[in-house]
Amino acid sequence: MYMQNKRDFTTWDSLPDTLTAQHIAQFLGISRRRVYELFQIHVNHGGIPNFSIGASKRVDKEDFKQWRNNLKEKSSVS
Fold it and tell me: What is the span of the domain harbouring residue 69?
């Protein structure tokens, strides 16, 4: 029997310190494509802060947490 080694990233504690688009997509319940779209948007306009390693995009867990908290604050003010 073949078993997949798939891990769920649905809690803060389950996320690694450096995130991929897949981690973020699974955590937020959105597509990877949407995550990459958010990478393209400037941080001041709601984009997810990220950095490149070669052709790959990565996000520091603390930056992602701050981005999400900022969105929550903006939503509660509206």
Answer: 16-77
